[in-house]
């Protein structure tokens, strides 16, 4: 079936905004600016960036409210006429999103630390590890049975991760890249936990995806903003925190100084906030209009764009290892997500479908789309 113009627009919006999100965050990381100590240095504030990301997710809540009131007024308060993206249960306890938000907070912060140490393309590729942990957790906690092609797909993903990691080990920035890669992979354990919690305790509430993303964004932003205060007073020696004036875990004041003193850093942070909001909307709409599998394929296209762009502006060197690792990852994810289901078996409605962004979808039939 041919795609409509609106579906093509949504697909393009998802690819573009998803690519901008990773590239904007990395751009801020690589930009130099004067901090509160008067020193010119790179922007190394992963927790402040994570707070900005959650603020972007919170914007989805505002969009939901505006869309809800607009369509209710246009349709004479008939809730049945609401679009699928905002239709859903409004009588629920918002605190059901607290635990997923805490998982998202932890995973995003760790991933942003890793992104500061490795390349944007490796960051995007290594997030494919999510398939492995979510598959294993679904067996343990959801009592699912994975089919043979799921295991084969997971095996290929592991192989792809090893090749991508080897590529970074052979790069010029060997030590930091390897540590960053490990942090990104470990963060996927937390993301997988988030997805299992969402499916087990949140999916039955039938909340509008935009509203769900907004609530998680609100909780994440408020909690992380509060945590930034004690982080300012906790000092730890080490290269990771050496850019902060007094070696704090996070110096948000220094971060704001750098944002206001550099248009590059400010643009990167703004790009992160706006792109995550639009990416959430586009991702949710793609899943509703097309399918979760289509969304997975589009997310792979985003990885290619990020890598090509990074090569074009010469912030990365081309590596055949990484190219090979990416293709192995891509094939593994495609097999796991039943893209080649005609070669293996018919699609099962209980097939576990993994999307790479930021708190994604844990099942093709799962009504929530939590992205981070």
TrEMBL record:
Gene3D superfamilies: 1.10.3730.20. It is a multi-pass membrane protein. SUPFAM superfamilies: Multidrug resistance efflux transporter EmrE (SSF103481). The chain crosses the membrane at residues 6-25, 46-72, 92-113, 125-142, 148-166, 217-234, 319-339. Keywords: Membrane, Transmembrane, Transmembrane helix, Transport. It is found in: Membrane. PANTHER family: PTHR13146, SOLUTE CARRIER FAMILY 35 MEMBER F6 (PTHR13146:SF0). Belongs to the CRT-like transporter family. This is Solute carrier family 35 member F6-like. It comes from Dermatophagoides pteronyssinus.
């Amino acid at each position: 079936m041919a795609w409509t113009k609106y579906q093509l627009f949504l697909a393009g919006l998802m690819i573009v905004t998803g690519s901008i999100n990773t590239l904007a965050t990395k751009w801020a990381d690589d930009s130099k600016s004067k901090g509160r100590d008067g020193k010119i240095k790179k922007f190394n504030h992963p927790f402040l960036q994570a707070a900005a990301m959650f603020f972007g997710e919170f914007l989805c809540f505002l969009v939901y409210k505006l869309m809800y009131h607009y369509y209710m007024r246009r349709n004479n308060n008939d809730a049945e006429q609401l679009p699928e993206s905002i239709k859903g249960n409004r009588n629920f306890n918002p605190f059901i999103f607290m635990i997923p938000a805490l998982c998202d907070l932890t995973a995003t912060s760790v991933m942003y630390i890793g992104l500061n140490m490795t390349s944007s393309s490796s960051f995007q590729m290594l997030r494919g590890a999510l398939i492995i942990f979510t598959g294993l957790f679904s067996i343990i906690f959801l009592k699912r049975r994975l089919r043979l092609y799921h295991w084969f797909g997971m095996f290929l993903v592991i192989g792809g991760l090893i090749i991508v990691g080897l590529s970074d080990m052979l790069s010029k920035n060997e030590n930091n890249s390897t540590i960053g890669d490990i942090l990104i992979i470990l963060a996927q354990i937390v993301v997988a936990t988030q997805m299992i919690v969402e499916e087990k305790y949140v999916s039955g509430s039938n909340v509008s995806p935009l509203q769900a993303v907004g609530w998680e964004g609100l909780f994440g932003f408020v909690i992380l903003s509060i945590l930034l205060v004690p982080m300012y007073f906790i000092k730890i020696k080490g290269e990771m925190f050496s850019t902060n004036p007094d070696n704090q875990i996070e110096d948000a004041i220094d971060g704001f100084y750098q944002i206001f003193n550099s248009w590059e850093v400010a643009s990167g942070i703004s790009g992160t906030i706006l792109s995550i909001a639009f990416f959430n909307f586009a991702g949710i709409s793609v899943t509703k209009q097309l399918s979760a599998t289509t969304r997975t394929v589009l997310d792979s296209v985003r990885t290619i764009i990020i890598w090509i762009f990074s090569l074009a502006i010469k912030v990365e060197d081309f590596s055949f290892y990484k190219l090979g690792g990416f293709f192995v990852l891509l094939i593994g994810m495609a097999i796991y997500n039943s893209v080649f289901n005609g070669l293996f078996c018919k699609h099962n409605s209980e097939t576990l479908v993994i999307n790479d962004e930021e708190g994604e979808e844990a099942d093709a039939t799962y009504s929530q789309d939590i992205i981070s």
